[in-house]
Specification:
The complex is a heterodimer of chains A (391) and B (570). Chain A is mostly helical and 391 residues long. Helices cover 59% and strands 2% of the residues of chain A. Classes of the chains: A mainly alpha (391), B alpha/beta (570).
């Protein structure tokens, strides 16, 4: 895959050593990378490793996000993560009293009636209990932040565009819903302002009606107009595919996806029955694949400037998967330092392998091309003429 | 290319037919203008071309419509996507994606056009419509004219042989409308696309049209060249009206035609002073009925004639400043409104017209400055008190309507303003006679809706009336009627402000024109002076008769009618 050949390569550096041209990566690559980190995070409660994963995710985001609106959402995910940690710890203080020996302080216990036996409110607070909450919260928060990283690195709309043809309708409706939301907010604002002109005071059921009816009528008119516009532009051209085959495809895909979800749960939750794990995952995957292949056969549609998988995408996705895989391996070999001991209390240890595993996740920050900045056209690749016909 | 064979259509079994026995054949490459009043079936005719009528509207269609030999009865609109491109009034309502390039590619993706071809066509279309610099921009951040050009581009990429445009400029300011129409004209000439366009700014397209389809309103369609049909077409641009008044045959279709013929008319008019530019009936309508109906039941008395220290002034604003965040929408604007005066507020989109009106009414934000009205500062009063002093009809008037019938709206309005039962209904009857009380407010035509909202606002008997873009979507007839209403309001001693882009309407209605740019007032003076000082702002009649300061065909008609002897002498 010698892609380094560029038109006008008059630079003194050999082509391979030149920095890659700025372009946006395939959104799927970012998602695979982020999910890999999230899976790695799910395998440990070691705060040092978790902090390292957070740092890696944040570093990559800062280096490789563009300047589109969704790129700014990372901060929100960090806040959400912080909130999760705080909630966990607070809940442990309120409900989780009495576990552990290292009592830090004692809160007055609130006696509950008989019916609520087994639940304790407040009481003595132990270090083990707080740390347990902290570790647990941190793990969940890290997974959430990883998803947030994917969200701010990959354009959600382009992600929907890469959906296989059989799922195209779902993608299209999500995109439409996304564009309609801001319009709805606009019209609510406009109608509320207009109501003052009629001297309305703006309270109670009447006021609600005065706002909702114009807004809904507006929205309804708009969706009819949109439906007509989409139809006249060819949306939903079936070209004579019989409805039975569409139904079969849909069923296969949905059943497959449900299977994959269940299977993933089984794989990730080590306490789940074995049958729920790999077999379900594989079965679901096979079903979904069959559906997609079947559905793809009837698709008569093409994509404009499709994203391609190139070395940078492979590196990114590979880094995420490698992190997850290495973490799984160390869990087999030496689970001790992945789950730091709470009783007896001990400082969390870190060994070399998991740290390396996490650091692999930081590679995309260095090995991928920079994202295009604003002013540049649509954040898509192809500075070079495309040679291979796109299926 | 397009063939209608004995097509009849009704929305409802009992309803009168929207189209009745239409037989048409539109050959390839023609620019075809569809004209007629609102509600005469223009949209129905256009929708029938690719089968949206009746598939999306319901109703019953008889006869056969074919495009390039394909009938709409057997195929859904989707299967016409490669043949017919359709652009509506509101481009934003038809956008499926959210960036310019993707929108342009959308139609092609549906038609499974190969990616390399798509890429090339997108680039071509960007250049063709002059929107290349917008390629990566989100659609919502574009101005109206840019959006409409993207919408046209997005249907052009599939290389349709027919382009159907349903009032593509009705929501745009004049400059943007000009951009869009010149883009369309270029397409006709360069690509030979067959274009079917309904357009209420007829004066822009008429001279280029190969064919005019005129819908008189009974469901039939009259078909012919503009020169054949214009003499007895009820919708006519001012230049055609002027031609009729002056008795020119054939009628001039453009300012250029008319100007070449107008030498003699200019001579005749040179010695005369133009009268009031508004239509005759407006002057006659200056009775006090609206005032009577409005204030009869209202709690607020009519109040003193003007401000205590300045009786000849109904509203005085000083140093009005409106800001949104760090954007300054209105910058230290002063305004003085006299009773009986109609002021037109002009300026491009985003120049601060609406913000100024909302600030004057007191419902919008105002950062600093004062508004004095007899009775207090509307900005410091409650909403109900403010609307009794200053009334405002917003840009989307229908936002104020939320009940099920016209009668309910009227009753609600009486209750809100503490007026006698029936005052709002009486007002509505004066503004727009014959609106059925049981009909749903949203089913009314644009003109009737405007009249209803105006009636609701007038029920509170304000002395100052502000109208934000009231002529949007009104055809010539409705605009003329509305002009009469506005003159009547002024004749009763109200001060009226109209924010508008419509030069012809301003020429026919306003005493005074105030032009805003960038939040500041850049010109202010009598209509003839401001409007005739620049060719871009001048109404058609002024362009034809320049340098004489005549503004409307009505003015000229009255002047000519008043000199029968001279006419006979010639």
């Amino acid at each position: 895959m010698n892609r380094a050949q560029r038109p006008g390569g008059n630079s003194r550096l050999p082509d391979l050593l030149q920095p890659p041209l700025p372009r946006a990566l395939h959104p799927g690559a970012w998602w695979l990378w982020a999910l890999g980190l999230a899976v790695a995070a799910s395998r440990t409660t070691n705060p040092i490793l978790l902090a390292l994963i957070l740092a890696v995710a944040a570093y990559v985001v800062v280096r490789r996000r563009g300047d589109a609106p969704w790129a700014l959402s990372f901060k929100m995910y960090l806040l959400l993560g912080a909130l999760i940690v705080v909630m966990r710890v607070v809940f442990r203080i309120i409900f989780g009293g009495g576990q552990g020996d290292t009592i830090l302080f004692t809160l007055p216990e609130i006696p509950l009636p008989e019916a609520a036996a087994g639940i304790r409110l407040f009481g003595s607070v132990a270090a083990e209990q707080l740390l347990g909450g902290l570790y647990d919260g941190l793990r969940l928060a890290t997974m959430v932040v990883c998803v947030g990283a994917a969200n701010s690195l990959a354009d959600p709309k382009r992600m929907l565009k890469t959906l296989p043809g059989a799922l195209y309708e779902i993608g299209a409706s999500v995109v439409v819903a996304l564009t309609v939301a801001p319009q709805l907010i606009d019209s609510v604002r406009r109608v509320r302002r207009a109501r003052r002109l009629r001297g309305a005071q703006g309270k109670g059921r009447r006021a609600l009606r005065g706002i909702i009816i114009p807004v809904l009528e507006d929205a309804l008119n708009r969706s009819l107009a949109l439906a007509a516009a989409m139809a006249s532009r060819g949306y939903g051209r079936t070209g004579g595919v019989d409805p039975r085959s569409r139904l079969v495809t849909g069923l296969l895909v949905v059943a497959g996806l449900v299977g994959i979800c269940g299977g993933l749960y089984g794989v990730l939750d080590s306490s789940a029955p074995a049958l729920l794990g790999a077999p379900l995952l594989l079965g679901g995957g096979a079903l979904a694949l069959a559906g997609l292949l079947l559905g793809g056969r009837r698709v008569r549609r093409t994509g404009y400037r499709p994203d391609h998988w190139r070395p940078a995408e492979l590196v990114t996705a590979g880094a995420g998967i490698a992190t997850a895989a290495l973490m799984f391996l160390t869990a087999r070999v030496d689970p001790g330092n992945l789950y730091p001991s709470l009783s007896p209390l001990a400082w969390p240890d870190v060994s070399m392998v998991p740290v390396l595993a996490v650091l692999v996740g930081a590679l995309p920050a260095l090995l991928t091309p920079e994202p295009p900045r604003s002013g540049a056209p649509l954040p898509v690749p192809t500075a070079e003429p495309r040679k291979e016909p796109v299926a | 290319m397009i063939r209608f064979e004995d097509v009849s259509f009704r929305y409802d079994e009992d309803a009168p037919p929207a189209l009745a026995g239409v037989d048409l054949h539109i050959p390839e490459g023609e620019l075809c203008l569809v004209a007629g009043h609102t509600g005469t079936g223009k949209s129905t005719l256009l929708g029938a071309v690719n089968g949206l009528v009746p598939r999306f509207t319901g109703g019953h269609l008889r006869g056969r419509v074919t495009v390039a030999g394909q009938g709409t009865e057997s195929r859904p609109p989707q299967e016409f996507a490669h043949l017919v491109g359709r652009v509506g009034q509101d481009p934003l309502a038809g956008f499926v994606t959210d960036s310019v390039e993707e929108e342009l590619a959308y139609g092609m993706e549906q038609l499974a056009i190969a990616p390399e071809v798509m890429r090339k066509r997108v680039e071509e279309t960007l250049d063709l419509l002059g929107i290349a610099e917008l390629r990566g921009r989100p659609l919502r951040s574009l101005s109206g004219g840019q959006q409409q050009r993207v919408a046209i581009g997005s249907v052009l990429t599939t290389h349709p042989s027919v382009l159907v445009l349903d009032e593509p400029t009705s929501a745009l300011d004049p400059t943007a409308a000009e951009d869009v129409l010149s883009a369309v004209l270029r397409l006709v000439h360069d690509l030979g696309v067959t274009v079917l366009i309904a357009e209420h700014r007829m004066e822009r397209v008429l001279q280029y049209a190969d064919r005019l389809l005129y819908l008189p309103g009974d469901g039939t369609v009259r078909d012919g060249t503009p020169a054949e049909l214009m003499p007895d077409c009820a919708v006519a641009p001012p230049v055609v009206q002027l031609g009729r008044t002056a008795g020119w045959t054939p009628l001039p279709l453009s300012v250029r035609d008319a100007r070449r013929r107008a030498g003699e008319l200019r001579e005749r008019l040179a010695s005369r002073t133009p009268g009031a530019p508004w239509p005759d009936d407006a002057a006659a309508g200056a009775d006090t009925e609206i005032a009577a109906a409005g204030s009869a039941g209202a709690e607020t008395p009519a109040g003193p004639a003007g401000l205590p220290d300045d009786p000849g002034c109904l509203l005085r604003a000083k140093g009005i400043t409106v800001t949104y965040g760090s954007t300054v929408a209105v910058r230290k604007v002063g305004l003085r409104l006299a009773p009986g005066q109609v002021t037109a507020l002009m300026g491009r989109n985003g120049s601060g017209k609406s913000s100024l009106l909302w600030a004057l009414q007191g419902s919008g934000p105002r950062r600093s400055g004062t508004v004095e009205v007899p009775g207090g500062d509307p900005g410091t009063l409650s909403a109900a008190e403010a609307r009794a002093l200053v009334g405002l009809v917003p840009q989307t008037a229908a936002d104020l309507l939320y009940l099920q019938t016209v009668d309910e709206e009227c009753a609600q309005s009486d209750a809100e303003s503490g007026a006698e039962n029936g005052s709002c209904r009486d007002l509505l009857e004066l503004l727009a006679p014959g609106v059925a009380g049981g009909s749903h407010p949203r089913d009314l035509s644009e003109g009737q809706q405007l009249a209803l909202v105006l009636a609701i606002q007038l029920t509170a008997a304000p002395r100052v009336m502000l109208l934000d873009e009231p002529t949007r979507g009104l055809d010539y007839g409705a605009k003329r009627r509305f002009g009469t209403v506005v003159r009547t309001l002024a004749a009763e001693g109200r001060a009226v402000v109209i924010a508008t882009h419509d030069v012809e309407f301003v020429a026919a209605v306003a005493d005074r024109v105030t032009v805003m740019a960038d939040g500041e007032i850049v010109a202010d003076g009598p209509t003839a002076e401001v409007v005739c000082s620049s060719p871009a702002f001048a109404p058609q009649v002024a362009k034809v008769l320049s340098p004489l300061p005549w503004l409307t065909p009505d003015q000229v008609a009255r002047a000519l009618a008043a000199e029968p002897r001279t006419e006979a002498a010639r």
